[in-house]
Design goal:
The protein is mostly beta strands. Helix content is 4%, strand content 50%. It is built from one helix and eleven strands; from the N terminus they run βββββββββαββ. The strands form two sheets. Strands 2, 4, 5, 6, 9, 10 and 11 form a seven-stranded mixed β-sheet that branches. A four-stranded antiparallel β-sheet has the order 1-3-8-7, with no helix packed on it. Strand 5 and strand 6 form a beta hairpin. The longest helix is centred in the C-terminal third of the chain and has 5 residues. The radius of gyration is 13 Å and the shape is globular. The model has no long low-confidence stretch (mean pLDDT 92).
């Protein structure tokens, strides 16, 4: 019943771009991207809770990443531009009732897709 399928990760040189996607079911009010690098805490990246509006970004990615949804509102995207080595992490799609819930680990989570940015 629950399905969060991510794709789009890969290896890219610094300054390059990638677009991640997440096919989500159920598609809840708040959809978000998180990332986690080895030895680091899970980090919130971006969230959208208003079906095309109200996108909010972490300071580390603001201006470089764009979160969006398709017209069917069942696929979440993360367009990543000007990638930096510090963006290297496993990226996770998450679905829940609020960003607060997701930050607490509540909701549904995808399997993750690896993004590696080389210097």
């Amino acid at each position: 019943q629950v399905q969060l399928v991510e794709s789009g990760g890969g290896s890219v040189q610094a300054g390059g771009s990638l677009r991640l996607s997440c096919l989500a079911s159920p598609y809840t009010y708040c959809m978000a991207w998180f990332r986690q690098a080895p030895g680091k805490e899970r980090e919130w990246v971006a969230v959208i809770c208003s079906r095309g509006g109200g996108a909010v970004y972490a300071d580390s990615v603001r201006g470089r990443f764009t979160i969006s949804e398709d017209n069917a509102k069942n696929t979440l995207y993360l367009k990543m531009n000007s990638l930096k080595p510090e963006d290297t992490a496993m990226y996770y799609c998450a679905s829940g009732d609020s960003l607060g819930d997701l930050k607490r680990g509540d909701g549904y989570w995808g399997q993750g897709t690896q993004v590696t940015v080389s210097s």
